[in-house]
Design a protein that fits this description.
mainly beta, 52% strand, single chain, Porin, 359 residues, 16-stranded antiparallel beta barrel
Length: 359
């Protein structure tokens, strides 16, 4: 009996010692909670067919509001396991995005070779072109990430942003950055339907930066003729930080081949702008987005957007900002200042005040 009690006591002591040692064992791991809370109070005209205006509170005036978790574990030898989960948050209503972890849900490895992740994430196109948008992919004041809206107006052929079922690589080697995305279509009977891939290269030398990206997305629906739609895009961007002014210029050349045949949809989106850091706390950013639609069922509307933002940094994490924009269709079609919202007239203008906090 005494031996049994001794064994139990020894086991208890060993368990307590293991518990005490646990913090040291997990010292090589970390998890970070992060996010953006961004709210805009905005006036916008032509919000319906009658031409009425709207004044309201909108989430994500400067950047999409979000929260997430990112973590890593040191595996030794310069190798780390990494993961990231990220969800969109509607700061005006509290609603979540259509998929809870719709922005990021991935796991992978990071090392001297770069980073490889599997799951859902932004496309390589999105990652490489972000530094070349003066408005930083603002949901309502940038057309850089506009989706491909072929069937409906306003037509703003666009960028593939979030991608599911992907394998993504990115690595930086001195001044050169390389990236690639390959996403499985997961369509029964066809390995190529629904598939997406992108390849990118970037270069930075002092104040100068440049990037080039090509991508293709195949439609997931196979037509009776055995074909599927194909969207192809080439992006390029350059910037030059001529302090206190930084200049931006970028372009997207887009083509969509329809499975059923007929004329391809073609367009070119060009954007340019600058950021003037007037003081350490105050910056002013003008930007212009212009799309040249050369063919397709939606006509040749050639929409354009002019945007202006003034930002005041209350701290490193909190900013106040004012924005104004106007959009115009070049051929009588409908247009919206938003990258995603429907248009109801051949022009639209907006002004707003917002606050953003990063954590």
């Amino acid at each position: 009996m005494k031996t049994t009690r001794t064994l139990r006591l020894n086991a208890l002591c060993a368990g307590l010692l293991a518990l005490c040692a646990a913090p040291a064992a997990f010292a090589q791991s970390s998890v970070t909670v992060y996010g953006i809370a961004d709210v805009l109070m905005e006036y916008r005209d032509h919000m319906n067919a009658a031409g009425d205006h709207r004044f309201g509170v909108t989430s994500g005036g400067m950047n999409t509001s979000r929260w997430g978790l990112r973590g890593s574990e040191d595996l030794g030898g310069g190798l780390k396991a990494v993961f990231q989960l990220e969800a969109e948050v509607g700061m005006d209503t509290g609603a979540a995005g259509s998929s809870f972890w719709g922005r990021q849900a991935n796991v992978g490895l990071d090392g001297d070779f770069g980073r490889v992740i599997v799951g859902r994430s932004y496309s390589t196109t999105y990652d490489f072109m972000l530094p070349f948008d003066p408005m930083g992919y603002a949901p309502f004041y940038s057309w850089a990430t506009s989706g491909g809206q072929i069937a409906t107006l306003p037509r703003k052929d666009g960028m593939v942003t979030g991608v599911s079922n992907l394998i993504k690589y990115q690595g930086t080697f001195g001044p050169v950055k390389l990236g690639a995305t390959y996403a499985l279509g997961e369509v029964a009977g066809s390995d190529s339907a629904g598939r997406f891939f992108s390849l990118a290269g970037g270069y930075t030398a002092g104040p100068f930066a440049a990037a080039l990206v090509v991508d293709q997305r195949n439609g997931a629906t196979i037509a009776a003729n055995g074909r599927y739609d194909k969207e192809k895009a080439l992006h390029w961007g350059v910037s030059y930080d001529w302090k206190p002014v930084k200049l931006f210029l970028a372009q997207r050349v887009y083509k969509k081949e329809f499975a059923t045949g007929g004329a391809n949809a073609k367009s070119t989106m060009t954007w340019l702008g600058a950021t003037w850091q007037a003081t350490p706390a105050i910056s002013l950013t003008p930007a212009v987005y212009f799309q040249n639609i050369s063919s397709g069922a939606s006509g040749t509307d050639d929409p354009r957007l002019f945007a202006l933002r003034a930002k005041y940094e209350l701290s490193k994490r909190t900013s106040l900002y004012a924005v104004a924009s106007t959009a115009k269709s070049g051929d009588g079609g409908v247009v919206s200042v938003s990258r995603d919202d429907n248009g109801f007239a051949d022009s639209q203008s907006s002004v707003g005040l917002g606050i953003q906090h990063r954590f």
